[in-house]
Amino acid sequence: xxxxxxxxxxxxxxxxxxxxxxxxxxxxxxxxxxxxxxxxxxxxxxxxxxxxxxxxxxxxxxxxxxxxxxxxxxxxxxxxxxxxxxxxxxxxxx
Length: 94
Description:
This protein is an alpha+beta fold. It has a single domain, classed as Alpha-Beta Plaits. The protein contains two helices and four strands. Strands 2-3-1-4 form a four-stranded antiparallel sheet, covered by helices on one side.
């Protein structure tokens, strides 16, 4: 079962539009970064490949993918988190 945040910890005082880092974590492998980017690209029209950073866990079992995106509304941000949460490869989001 995915432990998805759905943006609940996003500061309530966010002013939109804004740049927002979305972090998704899952088991290490080449497919997770591409999957996360594809999910986010459905919601963000001007997503650049340079917006993504990855970081392997200390033992290399997991990878975190951080994508900083320009979001226009809380609804857009929540939709991104919902789709990430629906993805079986994504174990956690922040």
